């Protein structure tokens, strides 16, 4: 007797049964692989008791990260053009402008509008300097690069993650994706990038990501030089710090990052999350009510890391 394979499917009534491609009669000489296939086709593949697969979810963030603030000056040539909760800086020079970080993917048009408001045509942006390749800071860089023709400068670790659009992240997997962007110039720790008389130094401050980068440059404020340190995130939000197979040296990397941050030239600290280093971009009277030093920032982050580490080690006992 021929064994006909049936595939049970879920129709509107939940009862639909329809034949699939005709299966061959069972044959004791049939190769095991074919037998296995026949076996699986004959079995029900779903029952009404199974849950519906979830909808895909977009990357949702708090409102302050998506609320633009009017651009404001933090030094003679350095403007804040980001949102209440995510930094994007624009540095103007006689030879064009430099964008430091961008924020969320949906911030691209806002950034271009803010550039125009401070007198910079998007086509005058020459360089894009990212901090780390997560979607809440590098999200709009592909679109801004397309709109401006600017060159993206980053180290190799960051370049790889930017090119993958945040996928296969050590900690987040594929949960936070953004339009991929290609890096045009790879830089090493300590390398300098110059434009229009302003020199930007790249500092590898591995912590929040293996390629985490801080940028320093000297601007003027109140007639005096001010050494600006744009220091990358130092947090480890729910990261696996103990026996992490994707990053066995993660804690040592954080320690190196903290030491590097303490050694930065740092008269004026700002960071991808401005509220984490004492800034309130939404306030119009006092943008920096709680100024913080680079050392204090590193010390505070190291205490938080040690606390998380102790908790994870205790949990592993
Ligand atoms: Zn991040």
Keywords:
317 residues, alpha/beta, seven-stranded mixed β-sheet, five-stranded mixed β-sheet, 14 strands, 23% helix, globular, disordered N terminus, binds zinc ion
What does this structure look like?
The structure is a single chain. With 317 residues, this protein is of the alpha/beta class. It is 23% helix and 20% strand. The protein is built from six helices and 14 strands. It has a seven-stranded mixed β-sheet. A five-stranded mixed β-sheet has the order 10-11-12-13-14. Strands 1-2 form a two-stranded antiparallel sheet. Helix 2 packs across helix 3 (141-148) and helix 5 (250-262) runs antiparallel to helix 6. The longest helix is centred in the last third of the chain and has 23 residues, at 294-316. The site of zinc ion (ZN) has 4 residues, from loops. Zinc ion binds at residues 132, 134, 208, 233.
**Beta strands, count:** 14
**Cα-atom radius of gyration:** 26 Å
What count of helical segments does DSSP give?
6
| Average pLDDT rating | 88
Which term fits the overall shape?
globular
